[in-house]
């Protein structure tokens, strides 16, 4: 298994837990953490050091807020590799799951207005709502939908909208009752975008507006976030940091860095799941949002977006993400308990409360970090998938804000990145070797052709084309390509669109013909939103 920092880790971890020891950076660390100008200078210098350590990174955007004031909003690098146009603090970045705390805030506003109750069943607002487990469908509340504790597996249902799908929001909602549930209700934490789609529909039902219209009218406009758009299809490519990634060879997340789309929406169109990850914003705009969250809903003009009571409720832990015995000499930042509240992760870090969230899209990752006790917060937006760079930024800037400069997050993250690449490349060699040594399928290739149906996803088709098979996911048009023999009844895809993740398909034979099939990802670094493993295909 690879140790590369995945999107799963970016979303589920506030800061890293350990690193290589380093002498304190300067004697003025404590003063810098408290003085606005010095803090801004220290963070800016640190960001530049990070970029030197990860030279393939096209661009970053950083916002730093202290005591309600944006003391640093800056863009670094270029919109697109090979071009000279630089990003600035108004450049749009896809922030993906950082959208979730905006959705939670919208629901909080409905709670304040008396139109929503956190612990009221979803079906009170969406009549007839149900899930594949009807008991959970009857009991699941608004709080549950934005706390990742409904019982779904990691990323369950994401193939309904990832990668770019032709399904509408209504079509996604129509499939929700069929997505399998793997765990007990409120029994554990499993990151679930699908329930945030449901939460967005609750907000729409309670407010009488589509999610994106409510967010625009009642949040973005009121906060003064004039750059921000609620959905990627609204992001002007000329004002955007364009997505970049490593798409092989030999596997995804390996090989050279390259641009992968000429707009954010071309690779990240989550209009149907906008409440889970649709927003594109700039450093200058997100600094305003950070200030509102640190001010517990208060706006600069003295009015409120949501009440302080509701703000505190959104940060109250609802489910344990993970736990440990706490800090050690080797791991001084290790949390005793990392939890998920509503739209934010909440954990202890170096004896203080840290409120955070990550975001990951194809060609971009991001983080928002709040330290309420110090009235400071920051964001980092990226237009590439250098996850260990994000780790160095997230943890290192947090430490600077807390005057903790006794670990070298840059060196440690570079080391982890190098080790992860080595393990991933070794895994790719092993995958290819197994295919070379694999047994042939037991039946002629044409026997596997046909329509294969899953209860929640729908149809996957396999066609016999000359001497090969061609597989197509009918709602995700990038997921189509040759299906090759791998080992016996296991075959693997070779999607021509190398931005996407290949899959193994294993067929079950009965009475001399294939009747059922299961699916899993090929790469050990596969993003969890390719939830192939939840598919249970039956030949129609």
Strand-residue proportion: 15-25%
- By DSSP, the count of extended strands is 22
Q: In whole angstroms, how far apart are the ends? A: 35 Å
Whole-angstrom Rg: 23 Å
Can you characterise this structure?
The chain has helices at 7-12, 29-34, 36-53, 100-112, 134-139, 142-145, 169-175, 193-207, 211-223, 274-277, 283-294, 308-314, 387-401, 409-437, and strands spanning 20-21, 59-66, 69-77, 93-94, 244-246, 257-259, 280-281, 319-323, 337-340, 345-349, 352-361, 364-371, 376-382, 407-408, 450-454, 458-465, 468-473, 480-487, 490-493, 503-510, 513-521, 536-539. It is globular, with a radius of gyration of 23 Å. The strands form 5 sheets. The protein has an 8-stranded antiparallel beta sheet, with helices on both faces. It has an 8-stranded antiparallel β-barrel with strand order 15-16-17-18-19-20-21-22. It has a two-stranded antiparallel ribbon with strand order 1-14. The model is unreliable at 1-5 and 17-29 (pLDDT under 50). β12 (364-371) and β13 form a beta hairpin. The relative contact order is 0.17. It is 29% helix and 23% strand. The protein is built from 14 helices and 22 strands.
């Amino acid at each position: 298994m690879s140790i590369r920092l995945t999107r799963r880790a970016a979303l589920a971890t506030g800061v890293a837990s350990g690193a290589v020891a380093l002498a304190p950076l300067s004697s003025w660390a404590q003063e810098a953490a408290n003085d606005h100008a010095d803090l801004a200078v220290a963070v800016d210098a640190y960001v530049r050091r990070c970029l030197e350590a990860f030279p393939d990174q096209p661009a970053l955007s950083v916002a730093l807020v202290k005591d309600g004031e944006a003391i640093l909003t800056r863009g670094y690098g270029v919109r697109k590799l090979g071009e000279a146009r630089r990003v600035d603090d108004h450049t749009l970045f896809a922030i993906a799951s950082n959208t979730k705390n905006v959705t939670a805030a919208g629901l909080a506003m409905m709670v304040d207005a008396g139109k929503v109750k956190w612990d009221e069943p979803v079906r009170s607002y969406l009549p007839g709502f149900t899930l594949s487990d009807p008991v959970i469908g009857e009991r699941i509340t608004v709080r549950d939908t934005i706390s990742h504790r409904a019982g779904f597996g990691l990323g369950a249902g994401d193939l309904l909208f990832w990668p770019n799908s032709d399904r509408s929001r209504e079509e996604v909602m129509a499939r929700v009752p069929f997505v399998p549930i793997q765990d007990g209700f409120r029994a554990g934490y499993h990151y679930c975008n699908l329930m945030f789609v449901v939460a967005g529909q609750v907000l729409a039902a309670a407010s009488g507006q589509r999610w994106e219209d409510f967010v625009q009218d009642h949040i973005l406009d009121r906060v003064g976030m004039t750059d921000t758009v609620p959905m990627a299809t609204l992001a002007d490519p000329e004002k955007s940091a364009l997505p970049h990634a490593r798409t092989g060879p030999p596997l995804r997340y390996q090989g050279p860095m390259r641009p992968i789309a000429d707009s954010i929406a071309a690779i990240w169109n989550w209009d149907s799941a906008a409440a889970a990850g649709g927003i594109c914003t700039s450093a200058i705009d997100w600094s305003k949002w950070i200030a509102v969250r640190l001010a517990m809903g208060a706006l600069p003009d003295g009015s409120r977006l949501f009440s302080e009571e509701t703000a505190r409720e959104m940060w109250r832990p609802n489910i344990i993400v993970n736990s440990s015995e706490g800090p050690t000499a080797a791991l001084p930042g290790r949390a005793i308990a990392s939890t998920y509240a509503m739209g934010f992760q909440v954990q202890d870090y170096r004896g203080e409360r840290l409120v955070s969230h990550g975001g990951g899209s194809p060609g971009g990752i991001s983080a928002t970090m709040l330290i309420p006790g110090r009235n400071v917060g920051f964001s980092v937006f990226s237009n590439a998938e250098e996850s260990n760079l994000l780790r160095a930024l997230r943890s290192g800037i947090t430490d600077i804000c807390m005057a903790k400069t006794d670990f070298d997050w840059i060196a440690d993250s570079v080391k982890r990145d190098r080790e992860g690449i080595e393990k991933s490349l070794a895994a790719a060699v092993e995958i290819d070797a197994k295919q070379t040594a694999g047994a042939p399928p037991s039946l002629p290739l044409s026997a596997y052709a046909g329509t294969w149906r899953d209860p929640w996803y729908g149809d996957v088709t396999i066609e016999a084309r000359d001497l090969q098979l061609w597989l197509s996911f009918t709602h995700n048009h990038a997921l189509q390509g040759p299906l090759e023999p791998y080992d016996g009844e296991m075959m693997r895809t070779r999607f021509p669109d190398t931005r996407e993740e290949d899959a193994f398909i294993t067929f079950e034979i009965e009475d001399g013909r294939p009747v059922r099939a299961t699916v899993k990802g090929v790469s050990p670094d596969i993003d969890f939103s390719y939830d192939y493993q939840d598919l249970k295909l039956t030949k129609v």
